[in-house]
Amino acid sequence: MQFDPNSEFIEIGDHMAHRGVGDVLTLTSVIREVNQKYPARKIVVKTLGDKSCFLHNPRIHEIKNELLDHPIDAPIPGHYILKKCSFFGIQDPSYRNELFISEEEGAEARSLIKELSGDRSVILFAPNSSDRRRDWTVDGWNALLEAVSEKYDVYQVDRQTHNSEDAKRGIFPEGKPEDIEPERTFLQARQELRGVDWRKAMALMKVSGKYLGTNTGFLPMANAFGSEHFVFHDTRFVNPSEWEYPDNINFYETNRIETVIRHIKNHWLG
Asked: Does 165 lie in the same domain as 75?
């Protein structure tokens, strides 16, 4: 199917049902690029995924809880965002995601951080993905948290992780497995922010400005706000350029803990 640039409505979204939060978040950059190229067209978003990232977005005309009847991924190599933008005739898109936080949401996040940490700087921390292949080691995380705690308060934000034998081998069943467990607790991270919803997490990410984690849904969120972030995982992507972000990211894969801590100290502890 070809894109008609003269149509009144432009549909952007997913043609497959199972999409993670990170995948949905990356659609915000496609929406921005399409809106800038075709400002007179009305954008309709179609996805069965989480829609909270589209709230307050002035570029969107309508959001529907359904799927596209055709893919909008051009059959070319390269980044996930580039593939979708190429379908609309956009060849050099920005990979920066775009999220809109209301004044009220921002004020609430700033007030909470001020209440919890006073004038200390804050880092948001998300240690796990839904895919355990992306995890860093528990010992690694705790050593890292101890290293940054002299200057920062580190707040852990929640996800849930799979804990089945299949999941450990990277095989995930359809739907929600019954043996999902809450993600592991890291005692050297402050716990007050666990269990927040995505909107609150977005506002806190914007306020904190720094993120430690794995390649999971919080990564494109940090990317949207230009947060400085360090990312760790052992995932072997078929095409690494399809998902990694070139801006404001420090990516480490299977590094020694001492090496990672040295890099963190150089960047954030000065």
From this structure: no
Q: Is there a single domain that holds both residue 165 and residue 55?
A: no
Domain hosting residue 74, numbered range:
9-87
Domain-embedded: residue 226: yes
Q: Kindly report the average pLDDT of the chain as a whole number.
A: 80
List Cα–Cα distances, 164 to 32, 96, 108, 184, in angstroms. 38, 34, 37, 15
**Higher per-residue confidence, 8 vs 226:** 8
In the chain, how many domains are there? 2
Q: In sequence order, which residues have a C-beta less than 8 Å from that of residue 171 and are 6 or more positions away?
A: none
- Tokens (6 digits) for 104: 């009220």
Q: Which of 46-60, 83-97, 125-139, 216-230 has the lowest mean pLDDT?
A: 125-139
d(CA 82, CA 90): 8
Q: Are 115 and 156 found together in one domain?
A: yes
Q: What is the pLDDT of residue 219?
A: 81
- DSSP for 73-118 reads --SSSS-HHHHHHHHTT-SS----------HHHHHHHHHHHHHHHT
* pLDDT class of 174 with cuts at 50, 70, 90: very low
Strand 121-126: give its sheet, edge to edge: 152-156, 121-126, 210-213, 228-232, 249-252
